[in-house]
Amino acid sequence: MSKNRINRRNKIKRTSSYRGYNHYRRYSASTGSQGTGLGKAVALSFAVVAATSFVIFCCSVYIPKLVDISKKNFISAESSSESSTLSKTESSKPESKAESSKSETSKKETSKAEISKSETSKQEDKGYLDGNVFIYKNVGYESFIGTDENALKYANSLNSIASTLDSSINIYSIIVPTHSSISLDKLQKENNANEKANLQVINDNLSEKISFIDVENALKDKKSKYIYYNTDENWTSLGAYYAYKEFCKNVGLTATDFSSVEKKQIEGFLGGLISSTKTDKNKKGNTDLLKNPDTITYYNFGNDYQCGIWRTENSGEETVSFINNAVSAENARDIFCYGDVSLFKANTGKSTGKRLCIVKDSYGSELAPYFMENYDEVHIIDAKLFEGSLTGYCYNHSITDVLFINGINTANEKEQIKALSAMA
What we know:
424 residues, alpha/beta, 8-stranded mixed beta sheet, 3-stranded antiparallel beta sheet, 15 helices
């Protein structure tokens, strides 16, 4: 081989198209077309294809890596910038260890205060028990402690009286629910007896001579109003008025509208639930009740009624005015028919031909004045203080209607049941 040919071959090896040229050489050798125009064209095609393949391969392998490296460098630069900015901000407002500790302490105290406030709110929502009195939002609620056995005995005591009364006398019964059963619903104290079931026992066992007047729904419809006292188990004069209207609706009477009658009030009354919460540690009674005293409201009507009271059975009659002006805040409920006396009688001067006798516990005090507009005479008897025969009394005074009214707890008291049974 000549020297020029060897140099030429070495030169070809150093070029990027060596592989394509090699194909050209082999093809030319096999076809014998080396040096011809066709041979050169074919060789050139192979060279182009080989070069293109090589370029595509390089792009597919190296370009993604370059992009990835570029992206990492960009993120690194961005992170570095943010870190630099944060570093500048922190360095401009340095916080000492003491300040950091103070900040953490403040957060903890705020958190504790929020938790304490939340727990207090929950406690207020749930209420609490003080003795036998349930306290909820500074209002006291009497617990119900009746039994089905006593409910049956109460019904039988009324039946015994009814059996001795003249058949012409209309006999009615009202049982007043506790404030808790009217207003508390699910918040009512868990260990309360079943008040509704107890009332059903009474009603189911009453004689056919006795008409039961249900006032529960009438009270529940108005439970958002001031119908029970805050510090006493009794209803207010407003609660009694709603019961009065329900009675009139059931017996065919026209309920008097007292909206135009002058109302008077006595402030600062503290009722029986205060005494029920007195302890050796708290001799004045429940503090939440003490800061929520009641207002006694009464109507300024009936001052011309001829009234008399018998404090006991044998004390003799005292002529009195209809309104008891001798009361103070301490005994303000005595404004209604002089409170707990054996007998209170009012001659109203009406000409209805009807005379009502109310046999009551304390709930009857607020209710009785409303009937003055519907009857010629109203006689009010306290069952525990009256010692005579109700049958004889009704006969002697030409009574046409008898109303037994008791709170549901009183209806389950053995003393009240015994007193009623003795009246037959």
